[in-house]
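Checked the freezer inventory, then went back to the computational side. Two predictions to log before the end of the day. The first one is the construct we discussed on Monday; recording sequence and tokens without edits.
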Amino acid sequence: MTTEGAAAPLGPLSERVVEALGALGGRLEREPFEVRVVLPARVIVDAVRTARAAGFDLLSDVFAIDWLRYPGHQGPRFSVDYNLYSIEHGERLFLRVDVDEDEPVPSITGAWKAATFLEREVYDMFGLRFSGHPDLRKIHTPEDLEGHPLRKDFPLGETPTLFNDGRFLDPAAFRAGMIGASGGLTGWVGGARKGVVAEQVDPAPAAPRPGATRGDEGER
């Protein structure tokens, strides 16, 4: 197994798992704060089972990266990352597979039920398909929305997109957030789409009416 980049520390558990994943074709990559193993997509289920059996007992996240037009990037357009954590050992390990747009990724839901919603989110936001997923459908965006909002070529010049829980994506604010000119990428309209129960509440209290007293406000 080869090592690339700056050497992040390898804990005892991570070292054992990394060595085992080498037998599956895994390649170790180290960044200052991240230990990652890049694997062929076809072995990701076996890799996840191996890591979980060894002690990485928490699936923190499954997320994707779109490398479109990223300077210096070579290889498939997308990466799918699996963020694993060991509660007992306090160690974190990332597994990664690189795939093209039309290449399905084997679903790990059979090995980790928690991946059910996480893979649906990647499918919704990036359009990547997970073969063997029991219920692969959108989880955030409306059914009639064309495209996938976290792809780099998503047309941001369109009208704002209303998400199921009442948040919305405004193209101008999203562009500003992507370049660091704004702290937020989405807003909230104060309610959910029809047929969806919103769990978010408005954090800003209503402004008092001009000239109203505390008693007046309490009676509204």
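The second is the one RB wanted added to the comparison set:
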Amino acid sequence: MNFQILPILIVVLNLLSNCLWAQTEIKDPQITGSLWRYEKLQSAFVGSRNVDVWLPSDYQSNGSVKYAVLYVHDGQNLFYPGVSFSGAEWGLDEVMDSLSRVGLIRKTIVVGIWNTPKRLLEYTPENKVLFKDSTKVNQVKWDLKPMALSNAYLQFIFEELKPMIDSQYATKADMKSTFMMGANLGGLISLSALCKYPDQLKGIAGIAMQWPSIFQEKNEAEVQAYIDYYLHYLPNPALHKIYFDVDGSARNAWNMRQQSYMDEHCFANAYHSTKSFLSLVFADNLKQESEWRKRLAIPILFILKP
């Protein structure tokens, strides 16, 4: 190689990297802190999507302070209503900022991963289900969906997005400083991420947990066979945190039963301490962002406590 060309090549590669990871600051009076957007971020595993990065108002970019990172699904619904598909937002920036200012949570940045039209396929874990038929003779193997994309989606997060975030921001890249949260199926894919990447993820929060609706057409044994996957793959409770909440109203009885079954698996895996496990029931409409924001401080405090 001509070593006179090498410095020019390095400059070109840096410029290309900056182009690939170009950010735009989102200006909105409703945003507390600052919000930066990567538009149509490309991936080798899944389709492109926007990714928002929220920084607290006292964020230090010089590396004097290192920040934990909270990855959150349905990223367009988190910070301001202008892009939310429901017209309402979680108010995550206000909650994070207020708790951080008084030292109740560790210093943290938030990465909001926008969903795509393939949300159902990306957020529904591809658990392999083994169960016996009613005669207890034939063993049956059932795969959730031949077109499922959840494993690819998690590869995007842990193999592409996380390294990029850690290279661009003053973060603590270790497992103990990495967290994930989501609502409905976003909570379910967060649980799957904890089981598949326990060496990279400290804790997760699932708000208004929703088990795959495809199972409502199937019998209870088959539903629970799907959930049994987690009995075998939940990571060490001494190192990890799990938070769930669920809508306890009568209309949500099916999800309540499945969540109770999942809670039993957590207990069976020694998630006994309130430091490692919390599962709550709220008897109102947890399928609305306006309801979630009323109690958003609870899971944030639980998983991000210093």
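For RB: The chain has one domain: 24-304. Residues 69 and 270 are 26 Å apart (CA to CA). Let me know if you want it refolded.
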